[in-house]
């Protein structure tokens, strides 16, 4: 065995504790160490993923106590796929922010610790098989996210962060309440054990716990009434952090919610609920995105809209629907990160970060503009880029389930996206420049990071088969609840003390 | 208007929550095969740890504790990042109240006693109530007392972060040694000894002592950062 | 305990409100003792009563002590 | 079982009632109050309520604390049966462990929230939420 899934948590934590010490010895190591850690974890996750697809889920037991007594980590095709995606995005974001501009050493230490912990917390949310442990990881992720939102010393960033913190900590309280309700009924905290015993719960408890879970997890997943923090936080956070939010944190939130709905409780009507809430999220977000004058806010609303689309796709509930949802998540992580990273260079020179200030910037920043254009075209879903395949699979899934409404919705949403992305592209390429602005040339590592993302878009666009195998395995593993329960609880038979 | 709306919503929510909670039989546990019976027997039987809460916190659910220590570590980092003003402006200490000579002498005498109490609490974490968190908090309270009574009392940031990092590294390394030694992370690889002895429980006291140092250093750093925040 | 909670919500002097939350934590830790949870009682006493209160007081020292009405004073030009 | 709200004396459920009330007060403060510090106070009250709820869920009537102290195991060989017998009279340790974690996490969040309050005050010179709104809420 190459390594165990627990290394995904243990090694970054060790590194985070080590960073302040290393800082005293060699300052540059503070920037290098997170990258090395992420590179190793990327290698580990790719090898484990290969192993898991062929030989089945790895259940890692902690402290030698078999589930449901100990905490366990589950590395199934689904969680493995998301872990790999998150670590890949984390690594690219690290490359991008390696030479983070104009921050001094003390700030760099904190930035890299917080970034590493943001990634680790999200990976922990996905890997863990225990609801209270998931709560702890959600708190790790959120505290890093609050601090990173307020990282720039402007006054609006503190406000955005406070808003995020308020909504975030209220929802985590609801999460704790849900955990209390479940514990009072079943006396266990292990997800597989809860799923196996869920029929023993009184229905009122089940429904109340489900409501609390949705409120608690919906904030990270950016579903409709709970996403008020998102546009501000995305707009005020540093560029790479916006990419990390949309590429990493949101994915963890959606995963946690889907896990609760698909595996933990089988309450009738969850699929319909997901479709309704997804459609509301989608429509409101896309409508707001069209009206935005602010580039990063526009990207943020677009991100919320895409998450709504993902939730609708999960709501279809068939294997094809889940496949489409996972494909959308994968593409959205890559494309939206590219848009955030390149977009923050496009508006770097302006104070207001308005869309009207990017006029004719393609002449100054040809490569960045080209990458932004690539991302825009891909996310709208034009063939032959990555976004096309995910939207196509969603359309076929909806068609096979006879959900004509969703087909119409996806098409009209794509049209809206076309409108607002091309509005920006039009300004970048065809508007005359208003006045000479001092643009910030992207550094070499930023170009490398964006280039990698662009390359990924092209690879997935031209060879979608390179990922579909993994996606099929992942969607089967999500829907096969019995196998999940069996995989986790049968580990107990081997290790029973 | 908003108040009335919120109040009525809260009333509905509260009544519903209470109605559901009243279905729990207070003072009785009716779930079958819960995890707690296993913990209650395995803790004295297998781990030889008298305090079951300690063995849950440190061993059965030790991963949570690792996460929790990380949350505190992050809170300290986040706080100093949020309040950071740039390398030149180090704020002046906020003066909560000016202290008399009696207070100063008193706290000087009390300080070692408080630290000793904190150390006692986390060393005996597996035997008596208390443990790493409580001991660490008590130590931080001792430093708080000194910081409040002496205006020029300095705590070295370097020492704090070294202690904090070393304690964190100890915790994570014990986990990794367990992984190499017993096959699972945080595996208890030491001899567990006899119930109610000071040297019992294998790695549990070691981890709790590391947690104690870490929590103490983190909370002291947190208070110190907050206290030095004066415009 | 409920009384202390109501007090700390309605009290306009933030310092007293914070002391109200300290009292809540104190009562809470005594309740934990009654509920046979000495570990938790010790933690709540140390963190809730001592540390949380002190960190609130530091914040109040650095900001303002009294709760303000909306639109009571004109906003000074921000930095 | 359906009409427990009415036929059981409320004293039995005093802990649940108190925790629900505390949760409601905390939520009210966090949602309605306009002063930033009051909002954070509301959060910590809410936290206290949930902790009380969790511990009361784990309570066992006439139970002892989950510690096998020397006084408890005195004159008793520690066989598995004896341990089982003793453990039947103990309160549930799991919620206690969870609350221990939750208290510490809550303190961390409170500290971060208060440092943000200080940052906001530094920029705006007020704690009133109405006057801080630069962004859309």
Distance between the termini of chain A: 23 Å
Number of H/I helices of chain A = 19
> What is the overall shape of chain A?
globular
What overall geometry of chain D do the principal axes of the alpha carbons give? Answer: elongated
Average pLDDT score of chain A: 85
Within the largest sheet of chain A, what's the order of strands?
Answer: 1-2
Distance between the termini of chain D: 44 Å
Query: Mean pLDDT of chain D, as a whole number?
Result: 80
Percentage beta strand of chain D: under 5%
CATH class of chain D: Mainly Alpha
| Helix-strand pattern of chain D | HHHHHH
| SS elements, strand count of chain A | 2
List the quaternary state of the chains.
Answer: heterotetramer
Instruction: Give the helix tally of chain D.
Output: 6
Q: How many structural domains are formed by the residues of chain D?
A: 1
Protein architecture, described:
The complex is a heterotetramer of chains A (497), B (231), C (79) and D (137). Helices cover 76% and strands 2% of the residues of chain A. Chain A has 19 helices and 2 strands. A two-stranded antiparallel sheet of chain A has the order 1-2. Helices cover 67% and strands 0% of the residues of chain B. Chain B has one domain. Chain B is mainly α. Chain B contains 8 helices and no strands. The longest helix of chain B is centred in the last third of the chain and has 26 residues, at 157-182. Chain B has helices at 2-21, 35-47, 52-60, 62-82, 101-123, 132-149, 157-182, 204-227. In chain C, α1 (2-10) packs antiparallel against α2 and α2 packs antiparallel against α3 (38-62). Chain D has 137 residues and is mostly helical. Chain D has a single domain (4-132), classed as Helix Hairpins (Orthogonal Bundle), CATH 1.10.287. In chain D, 66% of the residues lie in helices and 0% in strands. Chain D contains 6 helices and no strands. Chain D has helices spanning 4-7, 14-32, 36-57, 80-88, 93-124, 129-132.
